[in-house]
Amino acid sequence: MSKKPPKKSDLSKGWMKARRDKPKKIAPEYHLIVTEGTDTEPAYFGAIRDSINDQYCGRIQLDIYGEGDNTLSLLEKARRRATESPNVYKHVWLIYDTDDFPAEHIDKTAALCEKISTEETKYHAIWSNQCIELWFLLHFSYMHSDLHRTEYWPKLSQHLKGINAGEYYKNRNDMYAVLYPYMDVAISNAKRLEEENYGKLPSKSAPGTRVYVLVEKLRPYLNVA
Questions:
Q1: Where does 25-221 sit in CATH, by number?
Q2: Is the C or the N end of the chain the one with fewer CB within 10 Å?
Q3: Positive or negative, the Cα torsion across 203, 205, 206, 212?
Q4: HSE, side-chain direction, 13 A CA sphere, residue 30
């Protein structure tokens, strides 16, 4: 075999070019979100999914199901979906309100999520005490009074009217887009509430919400509403 250097005229030819390995395709990170509600929560997190898909298609995938079940039943459905799915979910998120469900079910669900988590799949209990409307309210102001959930709605309407966004009503499906500009305020307020509730069980953390944990996890992908 000749040891002569290649001719300059040959360097541009395809057979003389150095081989370049094809870039490896990175599989997306899969998230499973199961919600107690069948309208409000799926609409909110569905809008988050759509925003991510618009900018980072293939980087992260969210599968969302509104199950209509609560606490322990919701966890069982989430586990079944995760087990039967061809995708390996890195995170499984249970979104549920405490409302008037038995305290032992609320607390046991959170404890079981930690217990069944593995290095491959982590389960998260994303509860709101009393309901997800608390998370919506925290976009506008810090609130530490333990109010009944029915008192959240008129307060939300008051804030929404203040930004010319109309009234709040159950199952309103545009809350993500409306609240997006105030997302970082809500995360900060929710963390502050968690500090106040430190050491308390979920059933005793009133008011309190863990929705910020999921939103903060996805925050780097949410640059545009």
A1: 3.40.50
A2: N
A3: negative
A4: 12
Confidence of residue 16 (pLDDT cuts 50, 70, 90): very low
pTM: 0.86
Q: Where are the domains of the chain?
A: 25-221
Distance, CA of 209 to CA of 159 (rounded, Å): 19
- Chain segment 17-38, per-residue pLDDT in tens: 444 555 555 678 999 999 999 9
pLDDT, tens digit, 9 for 90 and up, residues 61-92: 999 999 998 899 999 999 999 999 999 999 99
* Distance from chain centroid for Cα 28: 16
* Per-residue three-class SS string for the chain: CCCCCCCHHHHCCHHHCCCCCCCCCCCCEEEEEEECCCCHHHHHHHHHHHHHHHHHCCCEEEEEEECCCCHHHHHHHHHHHHHHCCCCEEEEEEEEECCCCCHHHHHHHHHHHHHHCCCCCEEEEEEEECCCHHHHHCCCCCCCCCCCHHHHHHHHHHHHHHCCCCCCCCCCCCHHHHHHHHHHHHHHHHHHHHHHCCCCCHHHCCCEECHHHHHHHHHHHCCCC
